[in-house]
Amino acid sequence: MQKTTVRAGSNIAFIKYWGVADAAINMPLNSSVSMTLADAHTTTTVEWQTVATRGATGPAEDEVNVNGAPLHGDAARRIVNHLDRIRDLAGVSLRARVSSRNNFPIASGIASSASGFSALTVAACAALDVELTPTRLSSLARLASGSASRSLFGGFVQWDKGTNDESSVARPLFPVEHWKLIDIVAVVSSEPKSVSSEGGHRLAATSPLCEGRVRNAEQALPPVVEAIGRRDLPSLGELIEQDALAMHAVMMTSTPRLIYWLPGSLNIMLAVQRWRDEDGLPAYFTIDAGPNVHVICEPASVDEVSHRLGELPAVEKLITSGPGPGPVELTEHLF
């Protein structure tokens, strides 16, 4: 029996991934840029065991546990399918015991699949002594969750859309220490969203706005990278707000339409804009596929932004994180 535990950070995308050019390999419609988060992460332990045979003991199927409870249905099948990819790669028929814990709400627009499948990919491969480069691990993680490809690296990361399985991979842009940018997540709801991101990606192309949004995202990507390189928050902030709103416009005009926002989501975005315009508070919003709003600022503004967010009635709690590392192997296991 071989056991490995890995912790991987979620990430917040500044240029978003929404929509797939090839659903079979999660190849995106456009390239994206993100920051890996230090304090929103998933810890996953994977143990490989011999398959039960006649007259012998051992598990007959994979066992998956998330946040202390057994996982079933489509969510479990998605994990088992990824374990199958890793089994095929290693040429083994072992069963896996998987336990995973998040320190933030899952399936609510904080990219839990990114940290989850990044941690699972690295832990499952390491437990089998399958040695892959970070680039190859990024490609493998992408097959389960597109955004997981970016969480294979720390700091600021770009995922090139590519043209095939080998070229659709993430790569590091700037290290953790390049810029102490802060993401304050204003949690409006911890409940899982009704339509997963995986399902939403397949609807993107039904929106009449999709083609224009993809074109604008590709045009915005170089100036976003330049703004990160210069540590230029005002330039970065304007671009990330525009792309987030454009992505949600695609969601809202797809068939069927997806409206992930709650009333509180809009209230937070309007408040951040008002604080900036009226009070000169340098903070900008972005929002992934969910109701929870990410507010981006620098360390000097964290206390003021956090105080103001905390006074808004819609905000349940705040999650604050700076840039973090890629996946880290731990010595303490979950079981």
Structural features, described:
With 335 residues, the protein is an alpha+beta fold. It has two domains: 2-176, Ribosomal Protein S5, domain 2 (2-Layer Sandwich), CATH 3.30.230.10; 182-321, GHMP kinase, C-terminal domain (Alpha-Beta Plaits). 35% of the residues lie in helices and 25% in strands. The protein is built from eight helices and 14 strands. It has helices at residues 73-90, 112-127, 134-144, 197-201, 210-230, 233-252, 263-279, 302-310, and strands spanning 2-15, 20-22, 27-28, 32-49, 63-66, 69-70, 95-102, 156-159, 170-174, 182-187, 284-287, 293-297, 317-321, 328-330. Strands 1, 4, 5, 6, 7, 8, 9 and 14 form an eight-stranded mixed β-sheet that branches. It has a four-stranded antiparallel β-sheet with strand order 11-12-10-13. A two-stranded antiparallel sheet has the order 2-3. A hairpin with a 5-residue loop joins strand 11 and strand 12 (293-297). Helix 1 (73-90) packs parallel to helix 2 (112-127) and helix 5 (210-230) packs antiparallel against helix 6.
